[in-house]
Amino acid sequence: MTVHAPILECRGIGKTFGAVQVLKGVDLTLSPGRVTGLIGENGAGKSTLARIIAGVHKPTAGEILFEGQPVSFANANEALQRKIVTVHQDINLIGSMTVAENITLNNEPVGVGTVVSRAEERKTVEALLAQFHVEARADQIVDTLPNDVRKMVQILKAVARDARVLLLDEPTSSLTNTEVVVVLNLIRTLAARGVAIVFISHYMSEILDVCDDITVLRDGARVLSVPRSETNLGNIIVAMLGDKPQSEDVRAQDNVDRTLAPLLKVRGLSGRDGLKSLDFDLWPGEVLGLTGLTGSGVAAVGKSLFGADPNGDADLIELQGHPLKIRHPATAIRNSIALLASDRLRDGIIPDFSLVDNFALPILDRFSSLGVLKESRMVDVARQSFRNLTVKSSGPRALARQLSGGNQQKVLLARWLATKPKILILDEPTIGVDIGAKHEIRNIIRSIALTGVGVILLTTEVEELERLCHRVIVLFRGSEVRQFTGAEIQKAAILSASFSGSR
Amino acid sequence: MTNTSISTADVSRSGLSRTIRSWFGVIQSLAVLLLLVLILSILSPRFMTWVNISNLMAQMSVLLVVATGMTIVMIAGEIDISVGSVVALTAAVTASVMVVFGILPALLAGIMTGVCVGLFNGILVSLFRIPSIIVTLATTMMARSLAFVLTGGNVITDLPPKFLVAGQGKLLDVLGLTESIGIKYLNIPLSFLIALLVYFFGWFLTARMAFGRKVFAVGANRNVAMLSGIHVGRTKVICLVIVAVTAAIGGILLLSRIGGIQADTGRGLEFEVIAAVVIGGTSLAGGSGNVLRTLVGVLIIVLIRNFLNLSSINIFWQDFATGGIIILAVLMDTLQKRMSRAG
Fold first, then answer.
1. pLDDT for the residue B242
2. Residues of B numbered 288-317 whose beta carbons fall under 8 angstroms of chain A's beta carbons: which are they?
3. What is the ipTM of this complex?
4. Does residue B121 sit in helix, strand or coil?
5. Quick check: B217 and A398 CB within 8 A?
């Protein structure tokens, strides 16, 4: 194997956003024909590093050498001119346009004058598709293609720009197992043609399969950088987690009696995000954690169970022995099931509504007689509830937009507690809130469980699982791979199961 | 973002300023209105006469009724541009039924016309997710065509005098109290009282009832509404039925006032209605709005028309003036929002 000179080198890259240091003196060397795997937990700095290389962010320290020359990209376009191309995690193609139109978008071959030459466009694209064995025709509408082919079209779009450095951000997270193989092959082919590739992925097995070099980031610093041949899964996970002191033991006391009949019985739950056939039981007073990576299906569990996802379905949902068909959240709410959705702005808070209006939304009918709202009672109940959850605001009539993220989240918790749930589904309940609020929300969750409510906690924060859960189920590509109870709930074991999918 | 540590002094102050700000909108529109009235009464001596004012009341009743329904549907994030045609269709149906079967069946048929059009619009919008502007564009044409078919292109007249009382009568005259009370200012047109009733009902529905809160939620964020157990589609259907029924009531009132119907009636009414709602501060995006303030929008439009009527200015300037005021109103609203968000 010939060793090429590096095409791009990062030296001591640092980046701060406000007071937060996201990257600390990171080195990274990319060479033509080599695939570099970039690994780390959520928030380790992978995406920021990729964005700096792509010219989206400017580093606050360090320098970037392109073919040995220091460069400083003012914006993403300047990086594009050097043929540094990013393939984003989401498939960002225009579904109603053809494969050829998508691939050549903003890069159209120019015929007479500035008119796009269709014939030439088609020829180039057909050649490209054939060259990389992608099973699509140039004139096919993108929306009619299967997922993996769409992903490959997206990668080819980068290839068509003669990419010399290709940044792949989670290219396989939306794909199924067989589709992954096809995309990984494409990546190898591209490397063989001399492209320098950065491969960001949560999937260890893929990283180990496809990469030549591996770089691990932890808390913004590079903690490992080795050729693939000199490392293994165990080393990588140790590097990722580090020897952080274990969090103080506030593990919940497990008083759950699992010999009793379960509160909720779920069989064959399916939905978006690859969720297929998940089975679980939930007992009163139990905090059951469900976790997994992007694409494991964990993100779809809440809405599928709650009847909020048209793609969601279940073979069986039994609440206290009674079978339920939940096709709309109204049914779920009527049966004392509550869902705190993960995307606060999209699915939770209405910023221009007052706190009390946000609070009362699912139970408006309980606050009204003959359809007329008892406004003052509504305000009183909301005020009491906000006080219990220590919401900091100027009162129930304040606008939701005036509150911090943590306080908005508490208002939403209050909303769902007011429905008097037997089952409370919490989807990423502490995402995007500050440390103080995080701590408070976790305490609230503990006390809710103590009242006999069954809590389903969907989270990608492993630390949260350790602190709150009596039992944890790890999902991998749509179904359960492992279950942990009590003292078995350990960060390393959970991560290992989520990343490798091994039982 | 992070005003988590507000002291008690700040709390009371920000609460107060919010109340003032929400009243500010109402006060501001009233001020604009008063100014307009002042200018009009100076420019035209006939403006402040009771004859003119009671005429205005009668003239604005159709607009007020339909604008009330339009406000509700716009809060839900939808729109109905078929109201002008539905006014004509309802008038045609009511008149046709009335000459054969009498008043009560005719009123029922008129209202049912509105209900049917509303259901038709609503089901297409909710079930098939077709934008309401497209669906109601189609109904605009269909309803107008039906009105022509029903009337055969002729004018239907010869309606029972009893029916005409609603559109032409005045409170004291109808009660037979004109002589005994003798305060002419109480002799309010009946049609205006009916319009006020609908207006009050629209306000009560949106501001005081659980359904109203759901309408706001659906318009503000359909995901949040759905996840809160609100049936988004059903709510939108009801709103589209409400606006069509207000158009039907408007059609009946108009028929009663004019005493006859021509299939061409109500052309362009939808523009005046939407203009009134927008001037009243309701946004096209849904989720915000105020039925009370729609009255201000209606008044502004009617007053401008009246002023041009009374003065010697060419009546063809009317739409120009209304258009200008729409832009002014929306600009003022945007600026105010920007300021309150910055502060």
1. 98
2. 288
3. 0.85
4. helix
5. no
Q: Domain range for residue A221?
A: 8-241
Q: Which residues of B touch A332 (CB under 8 A)?
A: 229
Residue A121: inside a domain, yes or no?
yes
A380: CATH: 3.40.50.300
Residue A445 binned pLDDT confidence (cut-offs 50, 70, 90): very high
- Residues whose CB falls within 8 Å of the CB of residue A77, separated by 6 or more in sequence, listed in order: A55
Asked, for residue A354, whether it belongs to a domain, the answer is: yes
Give me the residues of B, 251-270, that contact A with CB < 8 A: none
Nearest CB to A373 within list B208, B227, B288? B208
Out of B1, B214, B226, the one facing A404 most closely (by C-beta) is B1
The total number of residues shown for chain A amounts to: 503
Q: How confident is the model at residue A150 (pLDDT cuts 50, 70, 90)?
A: confident
Q: Is the pLDDT of residue A252 over 80?
A: no
For chain A, first and last CA: distance in Å? Answer: 37
Check residue B11 and give its pLDDT: 36
**Whether residue A121 is found in the same domain as residue A205:** yes
Which residues 199-228 in chain B show a CB within 8 A of chain A? 208-211, 213-214, 216-217, 220-221, 223-228
Q: Around A353, how many Cα atoms within 13 Å sit in the side-chain half-sphere?
A: 27
Q: Give the minimum alpha-carbon distance from A323 to chain B in angstroms, rounded to a whole number.
A: 20
Q: What is the pLDDT of residues A461-503, one digit of tens each?
A: 888 898 899 999 999 888 898 999 888 888 888 888 888 776 5
A453 sits in the region (left: phi over 0; alpha: psi -120 to 50; else beta) called beta
Which residue ranges make up each domain of chain B?
46-266
Whether residues B3 and A371 touch (CB distance < 8 A) is answered with no
- pTM for this prediction: 0.76
Position B252 scores a pLDDT of: 96
B95: exposed, middle or buried (Cβ count in 10 Å: 0-12, 13-18, 19+): buried
A168 and A272 assigned to the same domain: no
